[in-house]
Amino acid sequence: MPEHYDVLIVGAGMGGGILAARIAEHGVNARTGEKLKIALIDMGPYLKGDPRPGYGNPARRAVYSNVPGVDDTNFVSSTPWGTSAGIGGQSLHWGADADLPSEEDHEDWISETGVDWTYEKLTDARNEITEMFHIQPVPEAVMCPGSLKFRDAVIAMGYTPRRNHRAVLNCIECGHCAENGCRYDSKSGILVRYIPIAERNGVEILPNTWVEKVLIEKKGAGAVAKGVVYTRAGKTEQATADHVMLCCNSTGTSVLLYKSGYGPKEKVKDLIVENVHVGKHTTMSLQNAVWGVFDEPVKRRDLAWGSSFRIQDRGPNGYLNLDINDLISFHGFIGNYLYQLAVNEVSPEFGKEHKEYMKKWMHLGAINPHVERQRLVSGEVSATGQHIINRNHPEILKRAQEGREIARAILLKMGAKRTSDITKPFDIGSTPAGGTSGGCRAGKDRSNSVVNSDFECHDIENLYICDNGVVPTGAGGIITAFVSCHAWRRIVANHFSRA
Amino acid sequence: METENSSRRGFLKTVAVTTAAVAASGAVPAHLAAAPGVDRKTVVAVLGDTLIPSEPGDPGYKDLESHGITDEVLKALPGVSDADVELFNEKSKEKFGGKSFLDLSGAQRAEYLHQIIAGSAGSDAKEKETLQRVYRNTRRRVMTLYYSNFPEHQWPRGKDGFPIPKPGDLHQIMNPNTKQLVTAWDQVGYPGPLTWEEEERRRNVVKKIHWHENWSPIDYQAETPKKG
User: Fold this and answer.
1) For labeling, which of A130, A441, B59, B99 is most exposed (least CB within 10 Å)?
2) Cα–Cα distances in Å, from A496 out to A19, A115, A492, B100, B128?
3) Domains of chain A with CATH codes
4) B58, B220, B223, B226: which to substitute to probe chain A, counting the most A Cβ within 10 Å?
């Protein structure tokens, strides 16, 4: 007999971890009033142990070596699409930048698909994630000299700088955030903030378990989710559940649904229910950093955070805005590792000049303009999990180039002696798979989306989706966590409360 | 770990003498001299030496040959076939009096690389592209490996892929850099992963800025949501 659960959650990242913890804590069986039997499944390992922010727990300290180099990695396990796998998901490897959605972002979601996620309605969610992830502005005491130069330069240029927010607790500023798990339990994430709650409330955590497909059966004109087929330790088995929740990220959830018989017919082998929006409408943050070389250090050796200030250059009618971040920081934050600086676009070609440049690695810093709030390009997830998108829309490239020009002007105002050559053609970069949105977006009905405002699948009973894929526009990361804090409230109120 | 007879100063002295002698002669060391039909490893080794040259008191690529740096480079050098390497070695003959890349002096090698970068080496578009690809791909691999702190660039891992802590190390510090060998991190003053002393120092500083010693995720009490 397969194991049976009240709730089966697939994917233990920003979505699944929060759902598991809070549904276990607050939800009950609506018929009997009894505690729910909940399983949380993930393909990767479980680095278990109560957190000790600022010091680290032995399991994490043992695994996150923080050795920054081309042949070393702290991704102890990866999904096929390059995101981190394990209890904690991509929250293990995000950079902890934590700027929550603005009122404008909420308006975009509502106008894009008709979700009812107003700024006011998600206030409890905002308060929860702010407290749980300990989101606070970057203290000036930890900023590097380059960040302060950035601030002063943009003020002189007529911009109003905003201090960045970050999701850390007792951070000792090691600088290894964006590319590594946090060995000190300081970087907020699901493993150290929500999984302890899930454990205390009896969630059965099943690591190293790969879900092959969701069991979906036809039911009249529609369908119903019954459980999952999974493989663990080489053995393939089934587990059934009254409620199945998919939280495998925009790419992972889309691929799992294709394999389960749900999605656009050209991508699904044994189609049970068609919905053309599965795996579609993916969006991401588009960015391309500009580097500067200074005569004096702009990083600091003793303490430093990744990104301290940002400005916004608004586009026409508030679209194609440029969000311009200082990325001056100490090592470990996107391109600032020594081996990356050795081959970046401002490095001399070779020889003694290159050696001298490397000795002054603390004199290097970047500014990163993002093109935000664009409605021009979106992508889709292929049947095998590739993210297909043509980012090079002429209007986006034009705006990105304007961002590079502003970034270069800021660097020169800061006193940079040399910058990236922004006259060279460039390929606009994007956030990795974990930072996309869309894929299984939430919306009014199946004519434009996959789930409703309460995260219930339009077409398949007892199936829910809650990961970055449900967000109609804007990148993932903290947005996913924030939306998940709303999701558990809706799901508990609608399905796991007594009348 | 430091052995009884090694010290950083002693190593630097040894390196300085060896490097000066080789630099003065411009010759390819005998153990790297190419056999007929160019040897991939030899060309990459000499190219590596050109990319990150050694000078008295300032080691470079060739000082890590005894630790197998070229073998390591060759383990992951995509897009560079043996034929590409042969072309790279031969093409310098056109502008350097019939001398192959391996026969050039140090200054001539640098000049040849600049010609490749500028697109003036090579007879046609295909050759130019090949030369530039050999240069770019090898440069990327050599630089990223060297500045990953080769050969002290990795921490030993078990079959499960997890790092293996040092026996008896309660703090599980995993900085692979040692004082026994002068490597890239030493040359540029890059600290790498934090030592325990550095962790404690930073904790003491940050405790005066923003710290919650006994924070627990259980502290925040979310209210049970109501229906409707």
Assistant:
1) B99
2) 12, 22, 5, 77, 67
3) 3-134+178-282+435-495 (3.50.50.60), 286-430 (no CATH)
4) B220
